[in-house]
Amino acid sequence: MRDPQSDRTAPAQRRILEQDAILRLLVRATARDTGADFFRALVHNLAEVLGTFGAWITEYDPATRRLRALAFHMNGEFIEWEAAIDGTPCAVVIDGARLVHLPDRLLELYPNDPDLRKANAVSYMGVPLQDPSGTVVGHFAILDTRPMPEDPRIVAVLQLFAERAAAELLRLRAEREVREREERLAGLVGGAMDAIVELDDELRLTLANPAAERTFDRPAARLIGSSLRELLVPESAERVIALARDLA
To answer: How far apart are CA 138 and CA 69, in angstroms?
Structure first.
């Protein structure tokens, strides 16, 4: 005799197993990737696993209210994409900082969105990418040309990988900010009229600006690695060394 309780729990158990299978596939597909490769692997494999027409991850610019695709996979191929959010379902995700699920009749809701019309879109689901303070920095979305019934598995998968995508986007932003600061500093050092050098713990040069090249009458390639004692008279070298020790 069959247990009625097992009949009731079997569908829930199957949903958990299916969700776990989806997660395992996506984790395996993206485990080794970072940056642009991670975003591309994620949207491509998500669209494949869920069987949706499209999937994409964007970065949001609040100053212009525009989204720029970090990876945009539509109808089996990657495309470049950037657009204003006003009048689109993405605007609801961004402005509301919440998940948005539109299971059917998408074009009736957004008849003036050219991208949706071009794709003959029927359904949409999007989740925001947020930093630790809750500020929206982008979004993660899927789109289909068929109705998209409510499915907790899809919601859970999107929310989980939205967190991973947000972390990766914030990491890339931090790297970009460091790189930009270094470039600005390099510009200031390179354009300085005074000689500027950087020393390691053994007081050997690791950086020299053009003014230092002129001062020591050597190209930077020959200055790098040189000991400070080789470049200055003993009295001057000892004063600089004493100053460096005081600053350490």
So the answer is: 9
Secondary structure element (H or E) that encloses residue 101, with its range: strand 100-102
What number of helices (H) and strands (E) belong to the chain? 10, 9
Q: CB count, 10 Å around CB of 32?
A: 9
pLDDT of residue 52: 94
Q: Is the CB of residue 178 less than 8 Å from the CB of residue 159?
A: no
With respect to residue 39, please indicate whether it lies within any of the assigned structural domains. Answer: yes
Q: What angle do CA 173, 176, 182 make, to 5 degrees?
A: 145
Looking up tokens 């899809």, which residue turns up? 154
**Closest by Cα among 80, 17, 73 to 45:** 73
Which of 123, 150, 171 terminates a domain? The answer is 171
pLDDT in tens, 7-56: 444 444 344 446 566 656 666 657 677 889 999 999 998 998 888 999 99
Domain range for 87 = 4-171
Domain stop point among 120, 140, 171: 171
Please give the Cα distance from 166 to 172 (Å, whole number): 10
Q: Please, what is the angle between helix 152-191 and helix 35-50, to 10°?
A: 160
